[in-house]
Design a protein that fits this description.
With about 325 residues, the protein is α+β, with helices and mostly antiparallel strands. Helices cover about 45% and strands about 20% of the residues.
Length: about 325
């Protein structure tokens, strides 16, 4: 027989709803058991645009229904990793039960349901779709599927992600954008095994991960990447074409993203624009400001002036 829910438990559920809705998107939380639910807790912090959370609790249902959705809600790809216990996730007509050897992906743009039927500790990431680039679609089509992370590099990536949930108090605004990049890379690393994707998709993931790791190499090119992975440039282009990627343009955009980030970083205010560009593989910065303006609407000097005004710190130079 189901235990009657007391007003105190319902009030706590509503308070938890507000925390989760503020951190991610609006949800409804229903306690299934009065006493167990009273020990639930939600903690979260932001790393750049990525939301990192740690949830502990049991005997509760989390529901994201169409009635709770609005056009102003952020579109997040959520990743959840159990650190302790098991929980279930349902979305897109699929359901799975997660243990400590798996992770799960779900999408806040569509209805989903989570059930915690035993004491659990779960680390969650809310990643804006834009940060995942071409990976977003593939992750969104793997919703509510238990993805094994029990071996090799996937196990290592999952351990680091869980540790991030336990270190929420150490997240800072200065390191946030860098940590956000690292967290997204860890997620893609954990998802890159053959059990998660097909062979062609796995190679595409490895190619993009390789490029991200070598953005500072000025000799990074489609030809060099193709040679490194034992394929022709033509095959490389065919591999990435279904994802709408031109590798040279993709690398250029990622480099410009990091240059913009570093130009806005107070800790790097002493570095010249040319040095920042060289750090990310662009040795000729003649047209850099024009490229930044075309990509982000601001030149190098404007990015630094905007950062100086927002932080109130002197010492920037364009």
């Amino acid at each position: 027989m189901k235990t009657a829910i007391s007003p105190a438990a319902r009030e706590l559920a509503e308070q938890t709803e507000k925390v989760v809705s503020r951190a991610f998107v609006p949800v409804r939380i229903d306690p299934d058991d009065d006493g167990q639910f009273l020990r639930s807790e939600v903690r979260y912090a932001t790393a750049g645009q990525v939301v990192v959370s740690q949830v502990t609790g049991a005997f509760v249902r989390v529901l994201r229904s169409r009635a709770l959705m609005s056009s102003t809600d952020p579109e997040l790809v959520k990743v959840a990793l159990p650190a302790r216990g098991r929980f279930g996730v349902g979305q897109d007509g699929r359901q799975c039960l997660l243990g400590s050897d798996s992770l799960v992906v779900y999408d806040t743009a569509r209805p989903y349901e989570m059930r915690f039927r035993e004491p659990c500790e779960v680390v969650g990431l809310g990643i804006p779709r834009a940060l995942l680039g071409p990976h977003a679609g593939r992750l969104a089509h793997r919703t509510a599927c238990a993805i094994p992370i029990g071996t090799g590099s996937q196990r290592f990536a999952a351990a680091l992600l869980r540790n991030a949930g336990r270190e929420l108090d150490t997240l800072s605004s200065d390191s946030g954008p860098y940590l956000a990049d690292a967290l997204v890379s860890l997620v893609l690393s954990a998802m890159s095994g053959g059990s998660a994707w097909g062979p062609g998709q796995d190679l595409a993931d490895r190619v993009l991960a390789y490029c991200l790791a070598h953005l500072s190499d000025p000799w990074l090119s489609p030809g060099a990447v193709a040679r490194e992975h034992g394929v022709s440039v033509r095959h490389l282009n065919r591999l990435l074409q279904p994802h709408g990627i031109s590798l040279a343009a993709w690398v250029r955009h990622r480099r410009l993203e990091r240059i913009r980030r570093d130009l806005a970083d107070p800790a790097l205010a002493h570095r010249s624009v040319e040095r920042v560009a060289a750090d990310w593989g662009i040795l000729d910065a003649t047209h850099l400001s024009r490229a930044l303006r075309a990509e982000f609407g601001q030149s190098a000097g404007q990015i630094r002036r905007s950062a100086r005004l927002s932080t109130g710190r002197p010492g920037y130079r364009g």
